[in-house]
Write the structure tokens for this entry.
Amino acid sequence: MENAPAAAPRTECGGRELREMFCVATRWLEKNATAINALNVFPVPDGDTGTNMLLTMRSTMAEAANPPDNSAADIARAMARGALMGARGNSGVILSQIMKGFARGLGDRPSFGPADMANALEQAAAAAYEALSKPREGTMLTVIKDAAAAARTCLSRDGHDLAALMETVVDGARLSVERTPELLDVLRQAGVVDAGGQGVFVILDGLLHYLRGEETEIELTPAQVTAIREAPLARQPAFVAARALPAEERKFGYCTELIIKGCALDQSQVRRWVESQGESVLVVGDSSTTKVHVHTLHPGSVIEFAISIGSVHDLKIQNMDDQHEEFVQLRRAPTPAADISVVAVVAGAGLEKVFRSLGTTFVVSGGQTMNPSCADLLEAIDAVPSDRVIILPNNKNIIPTAKQAVTVTKKQVKVLPTRSVPQGLAALVGFNGQAEMEPNLKEMAKGQERVRSVEVTAAVRDARIGALQIRKGDYLGVIDGNIRVAGADLDGTVLACLRAVGPETAEIATLFYGDQIEADQAAALARVLKEQFPALEVEVVPGGQPHYAYIISVE
Amino acid sequence: MTVKVVTDSTSDLPKELAQQLGITVVPLNVHFGTDTFRDGEGITADQFYERLLTSPALPKTSAPSPGLFRECYGRLSHESNEIVSIHISSKLSGTYEAALTGGRDLGDHCRVEVIDSQTVTMGLGLLAVAAAKAARQSASLDEVVKLVRDSMPGVYMASAVDSLEYLQKGGRIGRAQAWLGSLLSIKPIISVSGGEVVPLERVRTYSKAVVRVYEILEAHLPARELSVMYSTDAAEADKLMTHVRQAFPQQPAYLARFGPVLGTYMGPGCLAIAALS
């Protein structure tokens, strides 16, 4: 871009330029489509937003090739037709309406200047809103609307240069995209900006590339929008859009807004001065009332200046670093509170993960040989966001403590007396955060009854239990709480346990291996189990539990 | 003049039934990489599921273009001046918006009423069936529209899902997402409510899920209209149909198969019911 010739301001574009301009925008969109796709979150209206918008633009441009070059209006109408026929997905439909409005805005003009462009963008925004039964903010609608508003602002200064106008438009669109998560909760929760809005921004940016004479550069420029699926925290909008911004913009400073009232205010003088103070400058109004918006590191000087030329009203100063931080915090905030929370007692990182993934709000670490105290459980009950709580003790020795906690707490707490980890899990599968307490307890109890528990651990001393002669170090198979199998061989003990459970009626065995078992070792055992019991589905999950080599849930 | 009934291919209406009742079905698109198929055209259900299971990348779907709806309405406007167009929940697809856009500026000679059914597959299909039956008995457009809107709250659906993979990758499960996000093999039973996919229950094994579908079905018998749906296991669906016939011989029931669009999000091994009370 350094070697681009300093072109004279372009005040007027014809049909050929209009077509080429949108061709460049389509190529730019193509370049960014994958990154836009990555921004998709539910509710995804249809497929991938980037791809849908690109396919829509391709159809738009195919139709644009038909009319002769001499009329911008003809080309715009052809594009609108092409967009309508090729519209893919929700974003494509809205894009087609934007193109329709754009054509409407150009009317019958053979060529267009900045004022026509601003008008066409306004019409584009209007058409997009008209198209939807329930227009929603924080989407591409908002972005095209803000872009059009930016065009109008720029025009009210001294709009003779199309590229200058589009620069303002693209800035407006970028800010608008950044703000989409503030307007739409699903975006905020997913930590992305709106994909369709990003698409609109990219198209407008493509138009600007053309006007700046950078058609060839875009082939060499990497995609601007970035989204990293694996690192959600890196997906904050400031990050997504910041790559396109000059480095100094990244220091946020203070968002300063005020209205100056006076007589004979000189707009361009005010703007020049404010522009010297910071970024994202907006100065709009007339000679008696002027609204000023600026991101500056020194809001004080802006106010001093304003007071020197008139009276100051509606002053608003916000620390954008705070806003940014607040936003990041919001992103980290957990999902909204459920009406009923589950507190479960579990030991082992893997098991904890499994319990959480199935809807446990709070995991209290503990189990056999490390029973949590009543205070531990109360702390958990207090910590969960709901007033109604279900406790899964997952061990018969913890059930009394849990029942005791119920008598002390002010919350409405029920104990589902699960005596093992498999029972707790099976109960949890039946949990539905949206349902009421009683149906939940009923469903969960049913789940608990359906499952058989096998726990395999090493004997800590010699013992005789019933007919079983046990030596220290032997493996013990505990089935539904009773020691039923003993043997020197670990895998053999597991097999004997499963035979005792009766695998012919079981469909699935989930094998949680403990912190002393290697993944390979567990996988090898699973293979043996599959050979021995071909009808049984065997699932191997790292449980990470201490003491118990294997905890097996059989359903 | 008879009101014309239009729906989209996510209704999964059996072809013969649609033909017999004169329902026009506008296809959505299914994309395997750069290959694009119109739902129900150019690819059979068997071919689709075969490809679904073997394709390295999952297919994607997209709504019909507004232009396609425009064409369809334009064609029908030669036969009738009243069209009711009933579509998949706007929370699941852009089809409704595309239909609205396609129906605009059609001119004064033909009125198109586009309805967001808030449901999908045969839930939607049964509404179209009800509309077509009313239209055949010379109901006016306003009457048909009222019938459909009044029937919408009576639609109930439930589906056992064998593999979560498709639902999760397809990204259309709304608030069911967190509920399914699991490290263990879970067989969910899902439904559609308020236009969104919602969780009903989850169980650990597929046979338990099937048992629950039977129980849920029995709770909805007899129904005004009923449908059994499946994705790949026709035998399982036949069994359920037989069960319905034995329990309620008078019950009208249709057997339908999830087409490519539903199949993309539900995957193989699904057994489902839709009832209109």
The two ends of chain B are 29 Å apart (CA to CA). Chain B has a mean pLDDT of 91.
